Structure formats: structure tokens, C-alpha cells
Amino acid sequence: MGRKFVALLVLFTTITPVDATEVCSNAVLPGLKGDQGEKGDEGEQGKLGKTGPPGQQGLMGELGGEGEPGLTGKSGPAGERGDKGERGIDGPAGLRGKPGTTCDCGKYNKVVGQLDVNISKLKNSVKFLKNVVLGMQETEEKFYLIVKEARRYKEALLNCRLRGGTMAAPREDETHALLADYVSRAGLTHVFVAEHGGGRALTENTLEKNSTARSTAGPTGPPTNVSCAEMTSAGARTPADCDVAMFYMCEFSKRRKTPVGAS
Length: 263
Hints:
- This protein is an alpha+beta fold.
- It is 29% helix and 14% strand.
- The chain is built from six helices and seven strands; from the N terminus they run αααββαβαβαβββ.
- Strands 1-2-7-3 form a four-stranded antiparallel β-sheet, with helices on both faces. A three-stranded antiparallel β-sheet has the order 4-5-6.
- It is elongated, with a radius of gyration of 58 Å.
- 18% of the residues are buried.
- One of its GO terms (molecular function) is carbohydrate binding.
């Protein structure tokens, strides 16, 4: 028994001693720092973030170029008829015509004569219709109509235009005399006429001279607003009060259509 114990002790001492830490440790010690690696590929685009607050207002930009012309607008109302122009220069003589032929027109004389008689009767009937039935006065170029509706001066101007004419503005003494007789035959002493016109002047002297002609229709003193005109039955154009309502006279060119409301 003693010998076995001694043998085991000798065997134990002869075995090389091993550290407990070397036998049980599994840790890996870090090595030296390696070289820098290559740059990786670009990643995918991230999601759109929230909209930030609006920035401050920028400076005013430069003035832009001129734009294209716009569309043509609607035509305005037609203006008033202008004054008659001066006579133009005579044109060159025309070509000489072919020689005529002899015609025995004896058989047509009776027919032509009867036509002349009928045309003369028709003209007289038309003149009677204009002067008597419609109560109009006619000259070579114009018709004149006394409108027996009392209106102020501005209203009379508008009504003459609505009828297709203008306020009467006689320019010759012969026309003045004709229209004065027209006013007298209508049983009136004065009517509104256009403020501006040829012929007799519009003065305070004519107002005083013809004050007796106006005495039957209003006060004899000068009017408060004398920027308008009237024609008396004596043929004078005198200042008139624009705010007083009275009958008025319109004129119509023969080149235009028949006056509206000629009654």
C-alpha cells in the first residue's frame, strides 16, 4: 500500500504542469489594424421629407416685353352727319360717243306727254302730303318739321335725333323767311332751333327787338339761361331759356330716310 502511494506521487510530479487558464480560456486576441476598404455603392434615394415653411418674397423681376395687339373691339355708334363739302374739281371729258340714228318718235309723243302730266300730278300730290297733311316745310335740300310737343332744349335735341334728323339750323336769309312763315302758319310765336347756325346773328339786341313776339308765351324779361336759341314768327333767332319747355323745329336731309313720327 505504501509502495502504490509513492509510485503515484512520483508519476504526478513527473508530468509537466499545465496552467488552468491556458486550458479553460477560449478568448481570441485582436490582431493588427487592417487597410482601409473600398468605398461602397450609392444607396437608394430616401423618402421625400415634409415641406418646409415658405420663404420670403423675392425681388420684383424685370419688365416683360410688349405683348401682341388685342382683338379689334366693336364698332361704336355712328357719328352725326358732317357739313356738305366743297365742290370738287371737274373730271376729264369722256370719250366721244357713237353717232346717233334718226328716229321717228312721233308715235311716242302722246305717251310721253301723258306721262309728264301724270308725273306732275304725282309731284303735286306728294308736295300736298308733305306740306299740308304732315305739316312739313320743304326746301331744295331739307325738310323742316315743327314738333308740337313741349320739351326742354336738351330733350328737344335728343328727340330730333331719335326722329332721324337734327335741330333746325337755317343758314340763309331765304330759309329764315320761309321758316318764319312756317312758324306763323302753325299759329306759334317762337320755337326752339339750333344754337349755332348761319344767317342772322344771335344777340341781345335781337332779343329786345323781338320781345313783343314772345310776350304771349312767357315773361318779357331776359331769360336766366340764354345758351339756347329760338326762332320767332318774325324770322329772328334770339336767345332762349334752356329750361323752359316749348315746341321745337327739326330738320331732315333729303338724302336720308323719311323722318320718324312726322305728324
